Input
Amino acid sequence: MYPQVLFQHRKPDRINTFAEYREQGGYSALSDVIAGADPAAVIATIDDAQLLGRGGAGFPAGRKLMTVAQDAPHPRYLICNADEMEPGTFKDRVLLHADPHLLIEGMAIVAYTVRARHGIIFIRPEYENAARILEREIRLAREAGFLGEKIHDSDFSFEIVVHRSGGRYICGEVTALISALEGCRPNPRKAPPYPTDKGLWQQPTVLNNVETLAYVPLIVRHGAQWFRDLALTESAAGTKLFSISGHVNKPGCYEVPLGVPLSEMIENCCGGMRDGRPFKGCLPGGASTGFLSAEHYHIPMDYESLKAVGNRLGTGAVMVFDDTTCMVAATLNLTNFFARESCGWCTPCREGFPYLKDLLYRLENGMADGDWIGQVETLCGHLYKAYCAFAPGGVAPIESLLANFGEEVQAHIDLGGCPMQRQ
Amino acid sequence: MLRPRGAFFERTIEPLELHVSEALIEKLKNEIAAVEHPRELAVDVMMALQDHHGYLSDAARDQAAELLGMSALEVDELATFYTFIFREPVGRYVIHVCDSLICWMAGEENIVDHLRQQLQIDFGQTTADGLFTLLPVCCIGYCDRAPAILVNRRVHGPLTNSRLDELLQKYRAEAAEKPGSNV
Output
């Protein structure tokens, strides 16, 4: 239906094996690069492809690589973020179970461009199967000479280890992840220095999401223009893995070109809304993005289009709600998540989310009193003073609840509780 | 060492010494010796001792600290932070029920009610036979299989009450067949 790039060789019940990956031209990009490509030229290709970080922030991957100074000290590190703890997101898990060598080759190429010696895949403990697949496939790649000491008799050496987390949402935050790897409490750190300057063990560190790294071998093989042309909209580039869940007939992970309308994704990929009920809204990119209301049902799903309506593409985790969903109750659930997963390091976040959770609980259960909306707005404002991006992400659903579902909030206040019969 | 359900005031007395196989300690020592920064293995070491012992007891924490060259306090700071490290005794099977948005929309509350009823315990408690501990957990990344739970970190979903009953039955049978330490 749509051109498949990362999922080109996806199989229903097993990974694309190392042998199959090789037959399909896998590791040719790495071999070509190691044969003497100018690292700056490879970075320029990635930059030219306009590959944006797929982990949620959408930072240009090429530009990130350029921030590693030529004369930066060694050893340098490349970290792959496979923590994937954003609620609603499971694309990296599906990708790792589909074609793990895309990631391994992508990591080796990116490591080559910045001369990183050590690669680390930081993975959440719930993904133990994926961790074992990676360890096995890394071994196969090493035995075939694509990883290890002096790869292809060049002066480039690169190793990858799989690091299992103990499980906390904040570990997915770049600086917290580095703290976690160092065996410290995973508190975020304040930049500067940026990780590409002083990251893991105070050494230059590049950190990318699984999906971002997996695109790299394909971009190197087919060129920047090919990648940009995959997207449907002018401003976007490439395809994107979307994890679609909630009130749709076939929830799952689908690869679609950036810019495909939301309605098309729901109808073509997911077999439409469950029981044919009307679309009420969705979270377009995980729990840290705002609610989109039904008026945006046909919005092109890409970074710029969502930015234009004050939202974000995030991780591409589309959580779909039909008309039976109480948006206040949904927001309460999300806020409960943020209250529990706040690392507790800074006061606005640690104290703010339990307050907001209490306010939402009161609204849902008919105990909202005084200037409820005013209190919520004030608290949301305070949360922007938090240390890292966790808190501003966590208030996105609350602020968009007020902005896009104001009538429903008012109905809760007027009626003294939830007017909806939750299914 | 069983912990009766709900008996917060009847805390079990932990052994002062930890009986861990020499082989495991040797294995961990070798793994630690092979890395540049021992601390980076903190989670792995805690997990290994926990898997062996059922949970990370005070003695196991001290052992981890010694192996890693960290203070007991530093290890505790990590142990109490992570979702999958248990500083109190848990049952042989730890059931984590995902209560984030998609599982909640798919009927997580029914799953919890059913488990509470079948196991006669609440969140944070362990069944009297020491088999099951019930805990909530945030999104586990299986939203396409909602409602989902983890049993000893292995995922199950989408779940119905009858599927849950089958699962509990399976684990009870496994425990009866292979009786071991329930700690």
Notes: The CA atoms of residues 96 and 148 of chain B lie 9 Å apart. The longest strand of chain B covers residues 93-98. The two ends of chain B are 6 Å apart (CA to CA).
